Every structure is written in C-alpha cells, then in structure tokens.
C-alpha cells in the first residue's frame, strides 16, 4: 500500500508554507513602510506650505507699520486739499494746489501698487463692522438706519487685512425717508388722494 504523502512532499509543503508566511510578513512590512513614507512626505509638504505661507505673510505685512505711518501723510494731504481757497486765486496758489493734488494722487497710486487700498464707504452704504468704525450715530432723513451717513476719515486695508478702519457716522435706528403723504406709495391710487377710489372693481 502506497502513501500519497511522502516525506519529500511534506518538506516541500512546509517550505512553501514558510515561504508564504515570509511573503505575507514582507508584504505587511512593506505596507507599513509605505504608509510611514507617505505620512512623512505629507508632513514635509505641510511644513513646506506652512513655511511658504508664513514667508508670504511676512513679506506682505512687513510694510504694515510703514504704511500705517504714511496714512497720516495721506490724511494731511486730503485736509490740505479740502481747505484750498475757493473762488479766484492767483497763479501761484493754483499751481500749489495742483502740486498737492498730484502728490496725493502719486501717494495713493503707490499705496495701491503695494496692496494698500482705501476704504471710503459711500453715503448710504451699509455699515460693516469689519471695515468701519462708528464714531457717532444720528438720525437721518436720507439714509436708512444702519447706513453710513458720512465718512469722517477714510480707512485702509492691506491685502484684505484692515490697517485702519474707516471712521464713519451711522444713521440711527428708524432713520430713512419719511413715507410720502401724496399717496405715491399706493400703485392703485391713480387720483393721488391715497384712497384708491379710482380702482375699477367691476368683475
């Protein structure tokens, strides 16, 4: 009677099982090392991006203090132009005013080229606490409550970051144009008496 499994076959099977176990162990080690390499690469990429972002921020906002110091100069130029004499003036005064205007324009151009933008809300613009600073609140017949009545001092932002908020006067709650008494608010009142009597109610 012959035995189907000889010692040689058993040895071969044992060797194959050992090789398979070794292969599985190597695969697991390879997967672990691959995961570790990917994690290290991701950490390195994150560190690189963080360093680049910090370097960019440092470059972008390095002029922030310098720009803030120059805002006083811009304010003085604006005040000088606002106080220019009206009516007839001699040629020397006119030339001086033109020179101040050109200087202010050149300064604003330099600001914009370096990312410093003026924040100068128009009358009626909604108050934004991120861009504006309300220094007074008063009733208004022209601007709705919460709107800007007047910009007292322009603000500036540097690459989206506020260097100085705009100083504004804000309309008090309940402000705004009064309702018109001529009935113009009623689209069905053709006679203008506010009664709406001219509406044809026939079927």
Structural features:
203 residues, alpha+beta, 3-stranded mixed sheet, 3 helices, 15% strand
List the secondary-structure elements in sequence, H or E: HHHEEEEEE
Total helix count?
3
Proportion of residues in helical segments: 40-55%
Spatial strand order of the main sheet: 1-4-5
Q: Assign the structural class, choosing from mainly alpha, mainly beta, alpha/beta, alpha+beta, or little secondary structure.
A: alpha+beta
Number of separate strands: 6
Proportion of β residues?
15-25%
Report the average pLDDT across residues.
81
Largest sheet: 3 strands, antiparallel
Care to give the gist of this entry?
By secondary structure, this protein is an alpha+beta fold. The protein has three helices and six strands. The strands form two sheets. Strands 1-4-5 form a three-stranded antiparallel sheet. A three-stranded mixed sheet has the order 2-6-3, with no helix packed on it.
Q: Topology of this structure?
A:
Blueprint: H1 7-61, H2 64-82, H3 91-113, E1 116-119, E2 132-138, E3 148-153, E4 155-158, E5 161-164, E6 166-171
Parallel strand pairs: 2-6
Antiparallel strand pairs: 1-4, 3-6, 4-5
Helix pairs in contact: 2-3
Describe this structure in words.
- It is a single chain.
- The chain is an alpha+beta fold and 203 residues long.
- The protein is 48% helix and 15% strand.
- It is built from three helices and six strands.
- The protein has helices at residues 7-61, 64-82, 91-113; strands at residues 116-119, 132-138, 148-153, 155-158, 161-164, 166-171.
- The strands form two sheets. A three-stranded antiparallel β-sheet has the order 1-4-5. Strands 2-6-3 form a three-stranded mixed β-sheet, with no helix packed on it.
- A hairpin with a 2-residue loop joins strand 4 (155-158) and strand 5 (161-164).
- The model is unreliable at 183-203 (pLDDT under 50).
